Structure prediction request, 228 residues.
Amino acid sequence: AAGVIQSPRHLIKEKRETATLKCYPIPRHDTVYWYQQGPGQDPQFLISFYEKMQSDKGSIPDRFSAQQFSDYHSELNMSSLELGDSALYFCASSFLGLPSYEQYFGPGTRLTVT
Amino acid sequence: AQKITQTQPGMFVQEKEAVTLDCTYDTSDPSYGLFWYKQPSSGEMIFLIYQGSYDQQNATEGRYSLNFQKARKSANLVISASQLGDSAMYFCAMYQGGSEKLVFGKGTKLTVNP
Prediction:
């Protein structure tokens, strides 16, 4: 079965640079979520989109922005990168028409800021 | 605010034995969902099992079962017949009605010994 696709899988950037992470949800899924998992930490919710509209917002820094496109893929844009942004960034997708909000995670993008 | 507590930072089990990973939650919303995810050392977040707050029966998925005790606000994961490949980090997570974002516990690192 098709899964959530994230690209790139690994990314190395320097401080103050920008980064763009991409997420392609499972086909027919209409909702995308972004999570950040720091080293040794639990994942923290950043932001979500339903039908291309922002549906919820968590602890996302102002330096980050995200959007969902007409084909339902999503991009997380990160500017003025800081060392503390080094983390595993997960995208998850779900279909809100299901009785449960099962979220299926992508393999993650490991961002290293040097 | 919703909260997930996993009190076992690490657990050890012998191959082929059963193990229970603890999870307690706190929410005032009657509508919520509980999840367990497995995160191997490779980093991906693998969905294991889901329990809705209105579900009458405990969820089961193969060797995984969720011991849902609503009055005690606990949702423990039981893994039967442990395998070496079960060694991983296990996260309990929940959403509450009106928001599909997941809140995670700190995780339990399970090690299966041969």
